[in-house]
Design goal:
The structure holds two protein chains of two kinds. By secondary structure, chain A is of the alpha+beta class. Helices cover about 20% and strands about 15% of the residues of chain A. Chain A contains 13 helices and twelve strands. In chain A, strand 9 (about 350-355) and strand 10 (about 355-360) form a beta hairpin. Chain A is globular and about 65 Å long. By secondary structure, chain B is mainly beta. In chain B, a hairpin with a 2-residue loop joins strand 6 (about 100) and strand 7. In chain B, the strands form nine sheets. In chain B, strands 16, 17, 18, 19, 20, 24, 25, 28, 29 and 30 form a ten-stranded antiparallel sheet that branches. Chain B has a five-stranded antiparallel sheet with strand order 2-34-33-32-31, with no helix packed on it. In chain B, about 10% of the residues lie in helices and about 35% in strands. The chains are: A alpha+beta, B mainly beta. The interface between A and B is large, with 64 and 62 residues.
Amino acid sequence: MGTWLLSLVGCLGGPGPVDSDLDLRTEVRTVPAPWIPPQCYASTAGGAHNSCWTCHQTPREPNFIDDAALQLEASMPGPAAQNPWTHTLGPAPASIPEAEVLAWVRTDNYRDEDGTPSLARALRALPAGWDADGDRSWDGYVPDAWLSADSRGWDRAPTGEPTGWRAYAYWPLPGAFWPTNGSWGDAWLRLPEVYRTDSEGAPSEEAYRLNLALLEAVVRREDVPLSAPVDETRHGDLDRDGQLGQAHLVSIRGWEPRQGQLLRWVGAAGQRQDRGELQPPTPGLFPEGTELLHSVRYLDVSGDTVRMAPRLKELRYAVKTRWQSYADLELAAASEAREEEQEPDVLHPPQADLERGVFTGTGWRLQGFIEDHEGELRPQTVEETSFCAGCHGGVGATVDSMFSFARKVPGDSGWRADPEAAYALPDRIRADGRGEAALYLQTTGTGDDFGANDEIRAEYFDAQGQLDPVAAAALASDLRPLLLPTPARAIELDAGYLALVRQQSFSRGRGEAFGLSEAQIHRVIPEGQRTGVEQPVLPEWARPTR
Amino acid sequence: MRRIGLWVPLLALGACEGPAGPGGPAGQPGAPGQDGGPGAGGEDGEDGEDGGSHTLVFEDIGVATTDDEKRAVRASARAWVDGTEVPLQYHTLVRSGEIVGTGTFGLLTGQDGAPLTGRDGSLMISKDADFTSLHPVGSEVYAVTHLESQPGGMYLTRLTQDGATGALVAVDTGPVDFSAWHGLWTPCAGSVSPWGTHLGGEEYPPEARLWDEADTVAQLGVGDRNMLAYLGLDAWSDANSDGAPDLPLSVADAAYNPYWYGYPNEILVELGGATPVKHYSMGRVSIELAKVMPDQRTVYITDDGTNVGLYLYVADAPGDLSAGTLYAMKWYQISDAGAGAADLGWISLGHATDAEIAAYLQADLRFLDLFEVALPEAGEESCPDDFVGINTGDRGRECLRLVPGMEQAASRLETRRYAAWLGATTELRKEEGLAHDPLTNTLYLAISEVEYGMEDLERTGLPDERHDALGPNDIRLAYNKCGAVYALDLAGHATIGSDYVAENMYAYVEGVPYPGASPFPGNACSVSHLANPDNLTFVEGYGTLIIGEDATVGHQNDVLWAYDQQTGRLDRIFSTPYGAETTSPYWYPDLGGFGYLTAVVQHPFGETDQLQPHDPLDEAAYVGYLGPFPSMSQ
């Protein structure tokens, strides 16, 4: 045992540009807890810097993981105390000429020349080094989205056929998901076929649209406006007003299953729900079979503006494979809290395998694909894909282990994938009336998770570190000046990441930052030490009563 | 003292006449490294008396190496009892969520007997089945099963026994009613008393000091909040979305007392029903289990957690656990080799009856009624005058002063703190299973990880005083993340008035960490040795100690080992899918003419792909047994 892990496997794959010599089958972990991301090692600078709150939060049922206290006190299992993300500590890699960087990011690595996802082709040919169970068949996700949306977000094949995937606009989680901190990102969702089928069994865009509105209502827990009224005699009491009339919105009001007050899916899904074969729409939960897709992109520049690059850094996929009820989640959270209390130094590696990805324990399977050293997408190793599991499934801020869909731009106008307008959003207003991005600036002093975004610091803060009220107020109408970096910074971020691609050293970081000082990131987490943050930032949905 | 010293891997078969069994897949493990100077171990000597004249050899199932093996429940296919081959199989009696007769196994119920539900209407079904005892009652057989969740639960399952094959089949199941005791908190391991009752316990009880310090329900543990659901209170609802539970702490506090939980309980199983009693006089700690010695008076109680103690209870009368004297262990270290050795002393915590302690609960005593607290001084190294420094449990360092007159109340409601306050040793870590060999009068005790308070001013091998400061630092051993099983020689003790008082404690079988990176991903401990021992049971007359693992990092797949005392051989007899824990091995030498080894697979993680229909049972616990064996009673 041991040596085979390092040997290279011969190329068995068909023709194509994919570097199928890579043997990804190793289960060896080079870091003890790859699911604990670099952000968790960020210094709070005695309380002046708190980006913890974007993940560690007072939860809302059925999330029962209350980890808001992590804003106040550092806590890390012993084996993970040492920061393994050494890229953040070392200097930035040697610079790569701008022309080379731009040529790189402008090359589409998702599609072949005929438009087919290259990765799908590679997975069908399945190189031996990707075939973890030796059955010559890939058991995980095979990309089947064209990432090509029409004006209403529907993904369409070149033939015009919808694929079921639908793109949505969302407010990126403050910090790492802002392009100014590294990457552009889009987001797609697909429900299983039954949710796209009408009561007669025929494919139905209307049924699908309404089911997506229902999903949005249960995940965002807000009424979802409908752009055209819907006849409730055909689809049920969508607005929950007790009458079958014209619905102008989809609502979850009055949901009380213990009193028999349930929500109901539209079309064939509603019929299957009536037969007890599908769970009803349930606040805070996605239905079984929901898929999410997120392409993480380089930044391209065009004159003075920064835009989405054709090249993907990563393709991230999630599928809900197990229904976990409120009761299941509540008991599991208690059991997990008990384990953590009893065994604070024991790591609980999430179950993962190369072909299927990582299982969150909350019902999801997550799978990441990342560039090989030639820039082609390849499956992530078990260690690399485990990276997904820390944020998705173990923190208080998520809705059913997911972030972005609960942050969707409301209603029909939020179904789109328009790269030009992706970040043309007003600041997201929290329930306490504050702008979320403005609050993040205030609690970090720099607009990133490590206190290292000097561009934002210069733009939004004065020499004393005070937030410029005029610049901050402007966020209320447009986030782009904050979220998009200057072209120079964009190219620098691209170049830093590209260097890591060439090294294939993702187990030491994914370009989150380089050269951080000890004041910015801990080499070793000071276990049990107060962070200096005195008041935790409440979740965005909380309406303080005092 | 019968020190065996450091156990060395013995892959060759020892003496027994039984066939060697396939023993196959074991053997890949690389050299498990040099276990630095074990001192003069190895004098096996004087064994002879162990094991009587009988032999028991299991087929070793090997290490799970393929993906299929890692995801499977695997069991020895055969054993040799006195040389005669016995076919074995793991039989599932019941799984959580399964409907058996009139009941749904594992469904948690509230104080009013109604099923507990989530706000979405889902049934609360515990997947954490744990210790399961078997009870012959008249012509029937019953199983009592712990549900190690919060709120906790216990199920009584009626079984039929096939007179010809010994096969046990579940025919009906239902919850044991703990409403007279404010419910049940996280029952873990357990035992069967010599008089046939089920003995359980409540592990990791709520921290009473936290209750006295909390300002809001949100500051309570998730477990407390879920336990409030048992009492009919909703500690999660946040109807006004202000980020805080709607339930005022004052309301929760009026309905709840953390001192209701944390005791051994005894279940009398009779035809058609089971009656529980909590034995308050036995003390309140994080009870792994209570195990009664053959005199029917002396009981050992293990305490699972960080900086915990070991307790000895001597009942006033045989077979009656409602009144007795409680003692706490003092460790006098005599060796730091391997997992160490010590002579033991016992500090009396005084006498109490269940009724006396019930009266304190009736009076709604709380933590601050028992102790005054002060903040540690001088960098948390000392306490103000009149305060005693202790270091117990997750709270760790505290400066306490007993409220005058509260000796008896503190001895049973805050047993661990009171023991430390009197100078007992509260430095054990992850103290788990107990088993007794009556032939040699030896008690076996599992320590899942030798760490924290058991180390000498270190934490997992690094300098760190937090688990020893303010305490006596009685235990000063080297970190061993793989844990060890200890042996305790029992003997007569005139003052205590028992023939079963432990006079020493010494490492018996140890887990062995890989010195560097593990050659087997996911296995930090040698795969040919045990890792993180948890539950124990002894096959009386056959010199076989069954050791169950709870190996979160030690081993990827938890294993039940059979340790043959005559040969020193360790065989894997059962292994669980990864993510799961094997709990509750318990030996029944003769139940209606057959022997059984119960075993539970806790929290297996069901993985399904979206294209396959989802079977909710995939993640349900298995309760079952390995066997049947022939009758092996002595």
